């Protein structure tokens, strides 16, 4: 059984926000809802700036699921965390528990009127048998069509990878091996040779860690 | 009876809750391990500096307008989850269950406090129409808010498995909306009640003696009491402190339109839950004493009048004062 994961390669992410746009377009989310975002740390500082594309991480031990008062979240066979909007009461607890800021609400109104929570579904739709209704409520179900999430498919630098955790980690590891040199093609951060090797080793270890999530 | 209030019941439940409360800071553990692990897997190829920043919750820049979107990893989330799920949920269940258990045991061991002298049939007005209106306004809202609030904290463990999803969803949506819309009305009631009864609730020497005699438990003699006894005053001040905490934290949570941060909401959710559970556990005692626990007490809040023999037994100083005033 596949264990679906996202992986964002910060050495490649150029903060083009293409993933954000692709997501918005594929899922036709409500105004104000942005399931994916790019966060840039140390913005504008040469050599230090790093960008990462974030959305729901589909955590193995999901905090949103643990705190939801209506238990509207459920894990799928692919290890995705989806939720039932019919049971969502818009209390916002998932947002307060989520470390990645993935849950989105259409409103922030008085008396806690937030509307139904919306978040990344890994383009896997939601619990609705009617496909039209499913698309309206949860957005695209590309997985059913044998496709991967549009954000990753459209990533111009292939920084954002989506798919089976094992395969994604293998791709990343291979990359790390090839780019572990100073001024290599994709490296956005220049490192000293020794440091580069150390970083490459570190990254390879991390990539190995990534495969252990299955 | 009110005079049994302070020592046995109150102490038992409040001590239990205090233990739970004092244990809370101990839960501030390095609980971000899971978030770190998830993030490690999802964004591996980064420098150690980046990692240090990210796991410490440093903010960056983003095009997203969602509140807190510029923070890559909000590390407080996992701590909040831990406090809510590992401490507040079980702690609240222990407090409420313990309170009910203590009351049941007290009832079985001591039983109802009966009137010592037969009713005289003569009535004294104890609670005016205003008093009773405010009391029952607050009481009804308290019960509704309690049931809906407990639903939000606990219902998924016992109600969800037995209800069809549609009914479950409808109930929870209703519970959340009822809780959020009636909350501010409760706040008004609590405030009115506090202001209306403030003048009766300053402690004096009579109360000190009342406490020393344990509200009547120590020794045979009835300790004297004025219009309100020491136990009732304690309950009043519990409402002033804990009740206002519930109200204020609830109002912060009820209006996310002011853009409170996630961290603020986490803090106030904890305060709101802990304070409400304390208030509910204490309210069980109040309800018992005012109904089943004391013969002749409930009619005071129902009709406004109490029997003279009840007044003499429980609030002798007040009884004397009333008699003096009416000159009979």
From TrEMBL, chain A:
<dbReference type="GO" id="GO:0009055">
    <property type="term" value="F:electron transfer activity"/>
</dbReference>
<protein>
    <submittedName>
        <fullName>Formate dehydrogenase-O, iron-sulfur subunit</fullName>
        <ecNumber>1.2.1.2</ecNumber>
    </submittedName>
</protein>
<keyword id="KW-0479">Metal-binding</keyword>
<dbReference type="GO" id="GO:0016491">
    <property type="term" value="F:oxidoreductase activity"/>
</dbReference>
<keyword id="KW-0411">Iron-sulfur</keyword>
<keyword id="KW-0560">Oxidoreductase</keyword>
<keyword id="KW-0813">Transport</keyword>
<feature type="domain" description="4Fe-4S ferredoxin-type">
    <location>
        <begin position="4"/>
        <end position="32"/>
    </location>
</feature>
<dbReference type="InterPro" id="IPR000813">
    <property type="entry name" value="7Fe_ferredoxin"/>
</dbReference>
<dbReference type="GO" id="GO:0046872">
    <property type="term" value="F:metal ion binding"/>
</dbReference>
<dbReference type="GO" id="GO:0051539">
    <property type="term" value="F:4 iron, 4 sulfur cluster binding"/>
</dbReference>
<keyword id="KW-0004">4Fe-4S</keyword>
<dbReference type="InterPro" id="IPR050954">
    <property type="entry name" value="ET_IronSulfur_Cluster-Binding"/>
</dbReference>
<dbReference type="InterPro" id="IPR017900">
    <property type="entry name" value="4Fe4S_Fe_S_CS"/>
</dbReference>
<keyword id="KW-0249">Electron transport</keyword>
<feature type="domain" description="4Fe-4S ferredoxin-type">
    <location>
        <begin position="48"/>
        <end position="78"/>
    </location>
</feature>
<feature type="domain" description="4Fe-4S ferredoxin-type">
    <location>
        <begin position="79"/>
        <end position="108"/>
    </location>
</feature>
<keyword id="KW-0408">Iron</keyword>
<dbReference type="Pfam" id="PF13247">
    <property type="entry name" value="Fer4_11"/>
</dbReference>
<dbReference type="InterPro" id="IPR017896">
    <property type="entry name" value="4Fe4S_Fe-S-bd"/>
</dbReference>
């Amino acid at each position: 059984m596949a264990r679906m994961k996202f992986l964002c390669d910060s050495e490649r992410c150029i903060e083009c926000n293409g993933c954000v746009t692709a997501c918005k377009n594929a899922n036709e989310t409500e105004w104000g809802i942005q399931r994916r975002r790019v966060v840039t740390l140390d913005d504008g500082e040469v050599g230090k700036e790093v960008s990462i594309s974030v959305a729901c991480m589909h955590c193995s031990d999901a905090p949103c699921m643990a705190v939801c008062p209506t238990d509207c979240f459920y894990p799928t066979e692919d290890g995705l965390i989806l939720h039932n909007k019919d049971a969502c009461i818009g209390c916002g607890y998932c947002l307060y528990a989520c470390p990645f800021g993935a849950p989105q609400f259409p409103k922030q109104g008085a008396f806690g009127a937030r509307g139904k929570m919306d978040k990344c579904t890994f383009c896997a739709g939601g619990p609705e048998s009617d496909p039209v209704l499913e698309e309206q409520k949860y957005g695209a179900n590309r997985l059913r069509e044998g496709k991967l999430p549009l954000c990753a498919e459209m990533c111009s630098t292939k920084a954002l990878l989506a798919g089976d955790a094992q395969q994604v980690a293998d791709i990343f590891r291979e990359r790390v091996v090839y780019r572990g040199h100073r001024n290599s093609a994709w490296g956005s951060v220049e490192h000293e040779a020794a440091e580069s090797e150390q970083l490459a080793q570190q990254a390879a270890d991390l990539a190995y860690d990534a495969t252990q999530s299955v | 009876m009110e005079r049994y209030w302070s020592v046995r019941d109150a102490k038992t439940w409040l001590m239990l809750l205090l233990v739970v409360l004092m244990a809370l800071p101990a839960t501030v553990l390095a609980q971000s391990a899971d978030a770190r692990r998830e993030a490690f897997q999802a964004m591996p190829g980064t420098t150690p500096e980046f990692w240090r920043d990210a796991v410490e919750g440093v903010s960056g820049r983003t095009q997203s307008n969602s509140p807190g979107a510029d923070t890559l990893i909000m590390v407080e989330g996992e701590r909040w989850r831990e406090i809510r799920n590992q401490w507040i949920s079980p702690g609240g269940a222990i407090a409420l269950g313990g309170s009910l258990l203590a009351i049941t045991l007290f009832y079985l061991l001591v039983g109802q406090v009966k009137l010592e002298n037969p009713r005289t049939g003569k009535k004294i007005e104890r609670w005016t129409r205003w008093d009773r209106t405010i009391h029952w306004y607050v009481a009804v809202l308290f019960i509704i808010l309690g049931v809906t609030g407990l639903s939000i904290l606990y219902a998924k463990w016992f109600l969800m498995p037995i209800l069809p999803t549609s009914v479950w969803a409808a109930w929870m949506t209703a519970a959340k909306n009822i809780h959020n819309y009636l909350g501010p009305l409760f706040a008004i009631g609590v405030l009115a009640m506090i202001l209306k009864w403030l003048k009766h609730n300053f402690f004096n020497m009579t109360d000190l003696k009342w406490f020393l005699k344990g509200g009547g438990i120590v020794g045979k003699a009835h300790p004297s009491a004025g219009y309100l006894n020491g136990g009732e005053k304690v309950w009043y001040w519990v409402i002033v402190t804990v009740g206002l905490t519930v109200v204020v934290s609830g109002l912060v949570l009820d209006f996310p339109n002011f853009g409170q941060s996630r961290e603020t909401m986490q803090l106030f959710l904890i305060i709101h839950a802990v304070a409400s559970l304390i208030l509910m556990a204490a309210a069980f005692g109040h309800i018992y004493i005012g109904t089943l626990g004391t013969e002749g007490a409930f009619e005071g809040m129902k009709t406004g009048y109490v029997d003279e023999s009840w007044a003499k037994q429980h609030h002798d100083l007040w009884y004397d004062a009333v008699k003096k005033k009416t000159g009979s």
